[in-house]
Each structure stands twice: as C-alpha cells, then as structure tokens.
Amino acid sequence: MKSLILLSLCAISLGACGQSKEQMEGYDLINKVYSSGEEVPVEIKMTDEEWKEKLPSESYYILRQQGTERAYTGKYWNSKEKGTYYSLASGQPLFLSDAKFDSGCGWPSFFEPIDKDAIIYRADNAHGMRRIEILDSKSGSHLGHVFNDGPAPTGLRYCLNSAAMVFVPFGEDPKDYGVGE
C-alpha cells in the first residue's frame, strides 16, 4: 500500500520521480491523497455565511476559496520566533517553529506537521499545475501546498499562507491569541 501511495504521489508531484529515496521518505507522513474536488471528512462544518462572519476577508479568501497571498507579504514568511502555528479556521495546532525553515519561496515553509493527522492532502490540478493541496483536517480549510523539495528529515516543504494561521509563542496561552475559544 505504501508503494502505491508513493507511486501516486510521484504522478501527482512535479518532478517527484526524479528525487532520491532520501527526499521521498517524508511522503510516508501522507496516508491518503483525496482526488481533486473530492469532499473530505471534517469535524467542523459551517455554512459559507458562517465562515465569512468568522474569518477576516483575506483569510476567508485563502482558507475557504483556495486563494493565495502574494509571496513575501504574509506576516510569518520570515518569522524566526519560537512557538506553535495554529489553523485560523479550527484552532488546531499545525506546525512547530522547530520545523520551519527558509525555503526562499516567500511563504512560511515547514518540513513536517506537528501531527500527521492535522493535515489532509488533496490533489490540486488547478491553473495547469499538478500539486498536492494541504487542508486543515478539522475544517477542510485550504492552508497551502506540499512539495518534495524540502530538507531532511522528510524532504517535504509544506508551503503555507500566513493568513491561514495564528502564531502563539512558546509559553503563551493560545486563548490570548483567539485560539481555542
């Protein structure tokens, strides 16, 4: 089964088949890749109007309409602070700053999620590209994409939109940042 998943990801990802075994190892974090447009099972279900009321407009555009902020404009792309990145949509923890790295792409990049079950993967064939979209597993909200050009130990680059996340410094209460309310 693992080989079938890797083969599928090879077909979906740009240039993945040309990667070394070490660079492909991180894909074992990915249990399933949903088909493009396929509905994913989520715990938080809200109407479009409810999402519009809950989220700032830029975050709504990114999280619920699969938008993207311009490179080098998001508040976390170059952040070096230590802490945890949470989903703005669901409040679940997504990534630790220890997994953040400078990929040079202009968006916050991480090599692994805090928990492999925090992310849902879906094929994204929009705009003539073949990519793997990453979604918040609790709400199904769009966070960004994952690529196979990241550093060790996974070889993955989770490329996220700052407007899809809330950062909480280590030692701070997430509730003080609107997380978990």
General description of the model:
With about 180 residues, this protein is of the alpha+beta class. The protein has a single domain, classed as Peptide methionine sulfoxide reductase (Metal Binding Protein, Guanine Nucleotide Exchange Factor, Chain A, Beta Complex). The chain has four helices and ten strands; from the N terminus they run ααβααβββββββββ. It has helices spanning about 1-10, 20-25, 50-55, 55-65; strands at about 35, 85, 95, 100, 110, 120-125, 130-135, 140-145, 155-160, 165-170. The strands form two sheets. It has a seven-stranded mixed beta sheet. The radius of gyration is 16 Å and the shape is globular. Residues about 1-25 have low confidence and may be disordered.
Sum this structure up briefly.
The chain is an alpha+beta fold and 181 residues long. Helices cover 17% and strands 23% of the residues. The chain has a single domain, classed as Metal Binding Protein, Guanine Nucleotide Exchange Factor, Chain A.
Descriptive labels:
181 residues; alpha+beta; Metal Binding Protein, Guanine Nucleotide Exchange Factor, Chain A; seven-stranded mixed β-sheet
